[in-house]
Specification:
The chain has 11 helices and 20 strands. The chain is 28% helix and 30% strand. The chain has 385 residues and is of the alpha+beta class. A hairpin with a 5-residue loop joins strand 5 (85-90) and strand 6 (96-100). The structure holds fe (ii) ion. Residues 202, 211, 213, 352 line the site of fe (ii) ion.
């Protein structure tokens, strides 16, 4: 199994220029310049890449972290393979640790954390009418096509596939090219009409305001695919809002509201159909760098909770602002999902809704886990290098 910390994000082609001991730490610099980086001897021993320390097949850590002397120190620092590796000869037992320059550069740049992808935040004007779309045949033609489509989703928070056969089977085939279908209380692949099969407004023909799904789940579905298989009626347009764009707007214009929305954990629940799911998320989830990680907003599913008086008032004020912006036509795009066009969107970023409709509508779709889609993108990118 790959270990994200051990594997890190490699900075291919990096070469070491020099390694010296400074204040008990190993300071490395790079050929071609750039900021130098420091690593503690303990950390270097813990991240040694020799096969005794890092399993060559599984890339799992073999080092006994807890047997490393707390005062471990290098006797000698050497560069191997013309700067491709750092070799550390340890004073206490003369053993040698080897660490690739590309690995060290990657850690220096990211601290081993997942970095946010390149994103294009959008509103109605900047998105325009030219929605990110790819032909189903191109997506299905090979890994390059699938990676291009998933990269569109990563950048924009959604993308469309056109020319998909209007069947459940073809939709499922498209989903499973990316990852496995996530099972929830709604089943795996859904295929539904307005029949109230579940106690959820999705199973009616009423309008649904912008929201994210699974606010009552600890791990809200990362992605959703919708494919309208049949529509005979009027209305029913789908709406999308870039939640990160709205979050960015609030951050710039109302820091107090932003602080509340990014720190108050809002409980949500699904009660009925034999289950009582409950979880809590801030409306605007941030990553370790303060970047946007996850929007979790569904006012229909918010569970009762209270805060101290002034905090409660601040929460309602901030929630009202968020709700006003996501319902502002300036942030919303609309599309009519017709048979043959599948929509894949990031449920941790893009809020979705639907206008009311009259007539008959059959929609199928599925949830995918966040980690599975990100994994697919990483694997496809690595294969494309
Ligand atoms: Fe939904």
């Amino acid at each position: 199994m790959l270990d994200g910390v051990v594997q890190g994000e490699l900075s291919h082609g990096a070469l070491l220029r020099q390694a010296v001991l400074v204040d008990g730490e190993v300071e490395v610099s790079w050929q071609g310049g750039g900021a130098s980086a420091r690593f503690s001897p303990f950390w270097l021993r813990d991240h040694c890449h020799t096969k005794e320390s890092l399993h060559p097949e599984t890339l799992q850590r073999q080092v006994d972290t807890f047997a490393i002397p707390a005062d471990i120190a290098p006797a000698r620092l050497e560069l191997g393979d013309g700067g491709k590796t750092l070799r550390v000869v340890w004073r206490h037992d003369g053993s040698v640790s080897v660490l690739p320059a590309a690995f060290l550069k990657g850690i220096a740049e990211t601290c081993g954390r997942i970095t946010a992808p390149q994103r294009r935040l959008w509103d109605r004007t900047s998105m325009g009418q030219d929605f990110p779309t790819m032909e189903h045949a191109e997506i299905e033609s090979g890994d390059a096509g699938l990676l291009r489509w998933l990269s569109m989703v990563e950048e924009n928070g959604f993308a469309l596939a056109s020319g998909v056969p209007a069947t459940l089977e073809a939709t499922q085939q498209l989903v499973t090219r990316i990852g496995y279908v996530r099972e929830t209380i709604f089943g795996g692949m859904w295929d539904f009409t307005a029949n109230l099969a579940f106690k959820d407004t999705a199973y009616t023909s009423a309008a649904i305001g912008p929201h994210t799904d699974g606010t009552y789940s600890f791990d809200s579905p990362g992605y959703q695919m919708f494919h309208c298989l049949q529509f005979d009626g009027t209305g029913g347009e789908s709406t999308l809002v870039d939640g990160f764009k709205v979050a960015d707007q609030i951050r710039k214009t109302d820091p107090l509201a932003f602080e509340v929305l990014s720190s108050v954990k809002v409980p949500a629940q699904y009660l009925g159909d034999g289950v009582h799911l409950r979880a809590e998320h801030p409306v605007i989830g941030l990553d370790h760098n303060g970047g946007y990680a996850q929007i979790a907003y569904n006012n229909y599913d918010r569970a009762p909770f209270s805060l101290p008086r002034t905090r409660m008032a601040a929460f309602y004020r901030a929630l009202k602002l968020f709700n006003e912006l996501i319902n502002d036509p300036a942030y919303e795009i609309t599309m009519r999902l017709a048979p043959g066009t599948a929509l894949l969107f990031d449920n941790w970023r893009t809020l979705h809704g639907r206008r009311a409709y009259q007539g008959y509508r059959r929609l199928c779709g599925a949830y995918l886990n966040k980690e599975d889609v990100e994994s697919k993108v990483r694997v496809l990118r690595a294969g494309a290098k």
